[in-house]
Request: fold
Amino acid sequence: MPEFDPENTENNNEINNEGYTNESRIPSQEQAYDPAYGQPDAPAPAASPQAVQPSAPSAPTQPPVYGQPPAPAQPPVYGQPPAPGYQHPGQPPVPPPQQPPVPGQPPIPGGGYNRPPIPGYYPMYNMGPAVQKPRGSGGKIALICIISAAVILITGIIIYALSRGSRETSEKDNLPPDSSRVEASFGESSDIKKAPSTKADPDAPQVSAADSPDDFSDETRVSTDVYKKSVNSVVCITSYDQSGDYITSADGEGSGIVLTEDGYIATNSHVVNDSKKTGVLVSMHDEKQYLGTIIGIDKKTDLAVIKIDAEGLTPAEFTDSDKITIGQQSFALGNPGGSEFSFSLTKGAISAVDRVLSGSGYIKYIQTDAAINPGNSGGALLNEFGQVIGMNRAKLVATDYEGMGFAIPSNTVLEIVNKIIRYGYVNDRGTLGIEGKTCTLYMSKVNNVPQGMLVTKVESDGPSAKTSLKANDIITEINGVRVESAADLIDELKKYKPDDIVKMKVYRPSRDKSSKGYEFTVEVRLKADTGK
Reply:
C-alpha cells in the first residue's frame, strides 16, 4: 500500500480511506491505449521451443496496488505469472487473448497495444496506437481558408459601402433645401417629416365640440374603449432650444391633442417654452415622427398650437365642458415622464369645477384625481365616452396633497386655439392687468369685509396701474354686475374687447381690523392681451 507522503499531494489524493487507489483516476496516455489496463496479467501461453524465455523479475519490495502497474524499475512481464500480491484476491487470472492481432498493425512486444478490444471496456481504453498524421498539408489548408475568408469579408464591406453611399445620395437629392436644419437638429432619421409654414391661416377650419350622450351609466364604456378611441388623437411632443448654434439635447417633453386631420395640434404653451422659436418634434402612437412649427402661443391661458405636415390624422372629439358633473369618470391620456412612459392612461373622477388657481386669473379649471404627472401637460382629459373635456395642465405638488390635478376646460381650449389657428394669437381679449383670488364668505365674516375678488398683484405695465387700484383691494362690482369671486370677474371680462372702458366698484379694507374700510370706483380702459 502506498505510504502517505505530506509533500506528495497528488499521490495522497489517490488514496482512499481503505488504502486503495482511486478507481476514477484518469490513466496515463500509454495506459489509455492498453486494453488490458486495470486487469491482472494473464498467464503465459504454452512454451514454444523457438520462443525466447525472458528471465523472471525479482520480487518487488512491496506488492503493487490493484489497478496500478508496478514501479517503473520492476515492469511486469506479460506472459509470466504476476508478482506476489499483484493479483486481486478471488479473481482468477485472465487467459491470454485468442483473437488474431488487428490487421495492419504489427505486434508490440508484450502484447499490450495490438490486442483486440475487451468487451465492456470504455472505448478510450480500447483505442489503438495514435496515428501519426503527416505534417505540412494541414497548415497550407488553414492558410488557404484564412485568405479566402479575408477576401470574402473585404468584398462584402466594399459592396455595402457602395450601396449605402448611393442610397444616402438618393435620399439627399429628394430632401427640400431647408432640410439641413432638420438633420442637424434631430438626428439622421429619414422618417421625420419636414416642418410646415409658421403662418396662421384665416381660412383654416375651426374646431367645434360635439354633444355627449345623455346616458352616463353605460357600464360597457370601460377604460379599454376610451383608450382605443383616443390613443391616436394624442401625441408626444419633444421641445428643443434652438437659440444656440448647435442643438445637443432635448429641452423637455410633453403631450398634445390632434385638432384636425391635416396636422393642427394643441398643447400647453409651457411645453414649447412659451416661445415660437422652440424646435418641436411630434411623435405619434404609430411611431411616425414629424417636425412641428409653432403657429402661436397664449401665455394667458397656457395654450399653444403646433402644425405638422401630415394628412389623414385622427382628430380628437371635443365636448361641452360646461355639461360635466362632479363625480363622473375622467381619464388622463398623455406621456407622464415623457417618451419613456408615452401614451399612458390613468383613471379617476371629476373632483370639482370652476377652480381658480393663484397666478392664473383668466381660467376656471377642472379638478380631477386622475393621476397627472410631468409630461402629461398638454394631454387630454377624457370622459367615459372618449371625448375631450379638458387639457391637462398642472397638479398640486406638496407633501400634504395627493390626487389634485387640474385641466383647462375644453370650451376654453377651443375658444383660444381657434383664434390662434386663424390669427396666430388671441385677437379680441381685453385685460385689466391684475391678478387675484376669491375673498370667501368665511374671510368676509372674519375680517368684516365684503365678498369679491381680492387683488393680489397689479401689473406695472397694465391698464390698472394708471388708477388708484392696488394689492389687497377687493373688487365687488363691474359695470353694475355683482362680483363675489374671481370666477365671476373672469366671466364678466370675457364680454368686453380691448379699448372698452369698464367701471369697477372697489372696497379697500382698513389697516385696523376693528374699523371699517371704504369703497371707491375706478374706470379702466382694457388693454389688448394677445398672450404673446
